[in-house]
Structure formats: structure tokens, C-alpha cells
Amino acid sequence: MSLLRGVQFDPCLLSSIQEDLLIMKILRIHDPNHRYKIDARQLLHVVENTMHFISPKFSVPQSNYTNSWNVEVFGLEEKLGYTIKKISHEILCKYHENGDLHEETMILFETLGPFRWDAKVVVTLAAVVSIYGEFWLITQLVHRNSLAALTAKLKQMPKELNMLKIQLKALNLLIDTMIEAANLVLDFEGLPLQQQLLDDDAIVVTKSKMHSNSTSIAAWTLFSLVYKLSGLCNDLREKLRTCQMQIGRRFPEKIRNLFKVSHFDNQEVLRVLFSLKNDLPLKDSSLEKYCGIQELENKVVILLISKPELFTTEKIFYLVQRMHDHPLHKEIGGSYAIIWVPIPYSQTWSLTDEMNFQFLSNSFPWLSIRHPWSLHSSVVNFIRQEWSYKHEPVMVVLSTDGVVTNLNAIDMVWLWGAKAFPFSTSREKELWEQENRILELLIDGIDPLLTNLVEEGKHFCIYGSDNISWIKELNDTLKKIKSAGIQLEAVYVGYKNPSKVAEIILDISIEENLSISLSTTKMKLFWLRLESIKNSVARVEQAAHYSSSLQKVLRLLDACETSNDWMIIGKGLSTDVMILKGREVQECLNLVPELAENVAKLGLFSAIRCAMGSPLPVKPCYHNEILPAEEGLTEETVVCSRCKRPVEKFVVYQCNVTESAEAEQEAKID
Hints:
Blueprint: H1 2-5, H2 11-29, E1 37-38, H3 40-54, E2 73-74, H4 80-97, H5 101-111, H6 117-141, H7 146-154, H8 165-189, H9 194-197, H10 200-211, H11 222-258, H12 267-274, E3 282-284, E4 289-291, E5 300-306, H13 313-323, H14 329-332, E6 336-342, H15 351-361, E7 367-369, H16 377-385, E8 394-398, E9 404-406, H17 410-416, H18 425-434, H19 438-443, H20 448-455, E10 459-464, H21 468-483, E11 489-492, H22 500-512, H23 520-540, H24 548-562, E12 566-571, E13 577-581, H25 583-589, H26 596-602, H27 604-612, H28 629-632, H29 659-669
Parallel strand pairs: 5-6, 6-7, 10-11
Antiparallel strand pairs: 1-2, 3-4, 3-7, 5-8, 8-9, 10-12, 12-13
């Protein structure tokens, strides 16, 4: 004790020790599990708006929230407003009691324990501003509203504010600085992957600046508080800039490396892309709930990336039909999920972008990113550069283990819908290998009448043109065909990017009752499918030898691109079609009325082919042709390639067992 009497204690050192002890206590009562979750940025926006109406010094904040009043809260057992009210009550009561500042601060932190650090700051700030806002609301109304005047009297508020002019000015300045500090804290807490991407020194130093002097400065005068807090903000801003630079350098590489390795599941990939700032980054409007990425585990995930306006209305409805209303959806719908990831043309979100997103995302039967404007710039840049997003909608497919299996499955979705599951590039090749029904491929899902034509096995033709005189000539031929008693339904599909001419031609066809009428909207869907066929074929053209149907598709695409007037004739689910363009259409159809007898005997296709070739010989040539099962089992009458007469069908079985295989089999028997 005698030694201690001679020691001179430094008051500043003692104060520093007390603050360190207080910070340790605060850290102990902090709940690292963050049971209470709020959108702190959204609440801070409400605070900024409130201060804007109190003082003209506060400008209207730029925000991405169309409805900032609905602050999102999760896990809180009571209303957020009640929590803010409790904090404001503690502040007011302790101010009048003149108690121990550290003890009072600890009471506040116990109340705020389950919140994140950024939420603690903003909720406390909201409590202060709610008191201040109520004060200004009453003082502004006191001279013209009896209720305000009586309330002011009950609260014993001053009648004139001139005596408080300096204090109010200082308080405005203090709150402005507090808002600035809160924004810095939110920016730091929102940095992605801090523990992985930041140096340890950067984290420790920055967080120490956030914790320092959090209590003792409350005893200073208002202007001293402003000065002290401004210094802390400047220091924190500098440290935050250092952290942002480190993450800006390292985060893009982290994302690229993430897609270079395989994973156990898709959770790490989805977390880095969408869930670094929010535990519930997705919204499911069909179920009216928010979702976490854990609900996507063991699912194929399709990222629908587009501008906030997405598609035209007809494309949106068609996409819903192809995926959500598809007959296979009930069977495999739980195996995949679509997430809409809107990215605007510019780097920032406009009010129009935001309104488009809110309207559409509330209407879709699939998932959407809740706050797409909060996506990290490194994630957005990765999507633009590595996934080649150029503002046209794409569907990037992630397998159940987070691997990209298709950089754009959108054409598969338009063509086959849910049947394209799991939507990988290998699945696209498989579908083309199996595809043999060209008519169904062209019109699937566009109109129920067209679907019936296919299912009922009727002969029909699909044709396109922007030439009114050619259409009139074709209509005359169709009349002759019907007069001859030959059933051939006709479907006019217009032309790519139809204009007023298409409507005129449609009116002519309706008036003469010769064609099944499609609206211009459904015509656009046909050309959408045709464009998707073109894109898909271009990707798998190396597999063209697998399917004769693919060769027919290539001929159809050539006809549509090299001629304004074209036609494809087919029958129901048959694999046999005729593709005609230009004058070939009239030359072919002009023969049909004269073929009524042969049509009944040979079928429409065989009759047309016979008529377009040489006359039938008197006797059959007895030529044999062996066709693959896919072509040989067609429902159409098959004609001989030499004499053009209908052939009789036989089934041929071919043994493919090699000598080595036979020897192995004999060895097993022995």
C-alpha cells in the first residue's frame, strides 16, 4: 500500500481502462446468433426522411425503397416500434435521473443484445430521432392546433424556441454526424466475406474505431460531441476505405475461383452470390414469404437474368405456361427452382426499374431476389463478364453441386419447357437426338387448336408471307383443295416482326374462313419458337447426324430466312413433313385437287410426291429398302424410291452379336 501511495495515476489512463472494461461487458452481452434481424438500411432511410422534414439541411435521401415505412423485421417477438419506444423511454428517463452513464448504457445494450451491430446503432438512432421528431411536430403545430398546444403544455415544453436556437442547431449537427456514422457502420458490416478477404489488422483496427468512446462522449456538451464524433467518423471512413479496397481486389477472384472447383452442394455458391448481406435474400410471392438459400439445397437452380422489365407480357405468360403449368411440373417441379435476378442497363437503379421489379416480382410463381439493387458490384460484374450477360434475358443453370451446366438454357425452356430438365447442355443434345416430330416442335403450347390438330393426326400446313397477292393466290388454291374433299387445315403464322400487313392478311383469311386464325401475339410466339430452334440448333449442330429431323429443321430455317413465302406440310405426330418455299408452294398445292383418288389410296404426302415426280409404272419394281426403325415405323404410307408405288412393310431383325461376344457367352455356359 505504501508503494501505491507514491504512484501518480493518469486520469486519461484510468478512463481508457474503464472504457475497455465497458466494451468487454458489451461484447459479452452481444448475441452472435443475431436472433433479431431487421433491415437496418431501410430503417436508417426512415430516420433520414424524418430529419429532412425537421431541418432543410437534410436533403431527401436517394433510396431504392418505394415503401420505406414497411421495415422488414424477422425473429423479433414484439413490434419494432415498441422496441424503439422502449429505447427512447430509457434515454429520456435516464437523462432526468442523472444516474451512472455506464450503467445506463449497459441497460440499453442488454435490450439490443440480439441485434446485429449495425442494427444496434440504427435502432438507437431511430429512438433519438423519434423523440426529436415528436418534439418538432408539436412545436410546429402549437400555434395553430389546440391539441398540439395542450400536449406541449402537458409536456411543459417552452413556448418559444429562440432560447434554444444554439442547442437545437448543435443537436441537428450532432444527429447529422450520427447518421453519417451509422452509414459508415452499415457499410462496414455489409462488406462481403470479411473474415476471408480482409487482413486481420484491417478488421481489428476498424472495429476498435466502431467501439471506442461509445459511452463517455455522451457526457460532453453538444458541440464537443459533434467534434468528437466527427473525428471518429473521419477515422472510420479511412479504415472503411482500406477494407473496401481490399475486398474490391479480392472478391472478384474469390467468385471466379468458386466456379472452378466442385462443391458438396450448391449452398456456398448461392451464399456468395446472393446471401452475404441477408439470411433471407429471396422472396416467393406465390407463397407470400421470404426464403433462405437453404431451401434450394439438392435442387437444380435456374438463374433468370434480365433487365427489370424482363419480357413482353405474352412472353411472360408463355414462360409460366412452359415451366409452371407444364404437365411435368407436378412430377419434377420440386427438383428445380427459378430465381429471377434483375440487373438494370445502367449501374444504378432508377425509380422506373424499381417499380417494374416490384410489380413483376409480386406476380411471378417463382423466386426473386428481394433487394437486387443490393447485389455486390463484383457479383454483377461477374455475371456481365463471365456469363456474357448483354441485357438480353439468359437462364444460367447451376447443378445441385453448384456447377454451371448451361450458360443459357432459355431456348430449351421455350422449346421443351419442363421436359428439358435438368436443363444442361448435354440434355439439349439428347433432346435433339430424340426429336422427330417437327410440327409439334413448331407449335407446342401456342394454341389449343393447333395442339388438337397434332393429337388428332390431321393433315395441316403452316405458312408465312408478307405478300398479300401471294396470300390471295394461295387462298384460291386452298378453296379448290377443300372443294375436292381433301382435308388440309391451314395455319397462317405471319412473318418475323409482323406489322400492319399481317393483320390485313389475317383479316382476309378470317373472312374467307380458310385458315385457323392466330392472333398477332400467338404469331410472335411461333417466331419465338423458330428463333429458339435456330439458336439451339446452332449450339448442337455437330450432333446433326444423330437425327434426320434436325436436318429437316435446318431446311425449314433456310426456307424462312431465304424466302418471304414458305410452307411446311405435315400430319399430326408423323415425322414426315414437306418444306416448300417460293413458287414451290403453288406448284405443289395446284396438283392436290387432281389427286383426290390417289390421296385416298396413298395418303396426301405420297400422292403429292408421286404427282411431282414421273408417272407410276404399270408394274411394281420389287425393290427392297431397309430403313431405321425411327423412319420405317411412320404412320404415313411409304413409297418406293424408284417406282413411287406404295410399299408393303415387313419387320427385319438384324443380329449384331460379334464372334468375341459369342465366344464369351459360350465360356460362361461352360
